[in-house]
Design goal:
Arc Repressor Mutant, subunit A; mainly alpha; globular; 65% helix; 3-stranded antiparallel β-sheet
Length: 156
């Protein structure tokens, strides 16, 4: 019944769990995060810590604001995460002398050392999902578009 509405472009007002896009996203998110858990446990990382390191490995040193924007996290969520990561040697934080409010973040010694070992995570997750690389790219594009629309970002 839900598939019929999707095919005709009608959302309807069904309160059936199986008809809810939000539940499908929620269930998929939980399943993917669970698939990451044992892989990241081998690295001694949580999923949020892994995401922070992905940004830092890609971009090098970034401001806390840039990191928050990349991860779609607010300062109140990101700050305690970065504090724990700094205490574990995963990241280093440095206040800017010109602007004490600005803090730069980079991978710490332990965080840099994990990069090589982390290269096996994406292929393992790809295999677990059963998606082809093309399917994964298309799904990622659709999910980002949904997130952008819900966040009010209408830019392409």
């Amino acid at each position: 019944m839900g598939a019929e509405r999707a095919d005709t472009g009608e959302w309807g007002s069904s309160l059936s769990l199986d008809d809810q896009v939000c539940f499908a996203l929620y269930a998929a998110s939980r399943a993917v995060t669970a698939a990451y858990r044992p892989l990241l446990a081998e690295l001694g990382l949580t999923y949020p810590q892994y995401l922070v390191l992905l940004v830092l490995w890609e971009r090098g040193e970034v401001s806390v604001g840039e990191l928050g924007a990349a991860l779609r996290l607010d300062y109140g969520t990101l700050s305690p995460l970065l504090q724990r990561m700094a205490a574990a040697g995963l990241v280093e934080r440095e206040r800017q002398p010109a602007d004490e409010r600005s803090v730069l973040v980079r991978a710490g010694e332990r965080g840099r050392a994990l990069r090589r070992r982390a290269h096996r995570v994406p292929p393992a997750i790809g295999a677990a999902t059963g998606l082809s690389p093309g399917e994964a790219r298309r799904l990622r594009t659709e999910l980002i578009a949904i997130a952008d629309r819900l966040a009010g970002d209408r830019s392409p």
